[in-house]
Amino acid sequence: MTPSHLQRALASGEPVFGGWITGPTAIGPEEFARAGYDYVGFDAQHGYIDDADIANMLRRIEHVPIGTAVRLPNADAGPIGRVLDAGADAIIVAMIESADQAAAAVAASRYPPAGVRSFGPLRASLGVDTAALEARVSVFAMIETAAALADIDAICAVPGLAGFYVGPADLAISMGVDVSKATTDPDVRAAIVGIGKAASAAGLVPAIHAGNGTVGHAMAELGFRMITLGAESQALRRGAAAGLDEAKGDR
Asked: Considering its fold, how many domains does the chain have in total?
């Protein structure tokens, strides 16, 4: 079995850092790779991209050494199968609140009899060996609600999960905390730490959507191993603002 780029990055044991894509772009993933990011995530939940957009972007970076993940809104097997057929290394399934939902996400990435994924590879480079196609896929359950916290041990025990991916914003909202305090409120932060520890104890990868480098550094200090720093729009805005400041002589 040939591991995916993401699996190889995670095998180092060191934190891996990712960028995020929310709209169709010809150069965004390549620029994240050029900057040294370990993976790039494609947002099919909140982003303005569909699976055809994602397939085109995945194909463009087929030979670029960067891992890939796609966030989907639920465990629907159809969309999950399409992004995996297009070559995604991982899926991040949003709003997982129970072991049954997590098991459905895993099943969508596995062929019968282990799962419900339909056979239809689109990338010739991936081959047609179903065992190899399954083995290169990492499934992350997105933990982002108070309801998920109540079932965390059962979710941890679901076979086939690669890790948990924390969504601090929705977690804060579900706990009655303003989203601006998603990583600073003591109760939400304690919940985030607890999710990370539960994942690590179960042999899963603790991952999180940090949103920026400062929070990303703090999450790495807490033991998170897969950390998304920000979207292409944020990177563009930050770079554009810095260039403008330089041109105006601001320091």
From this structure: 1
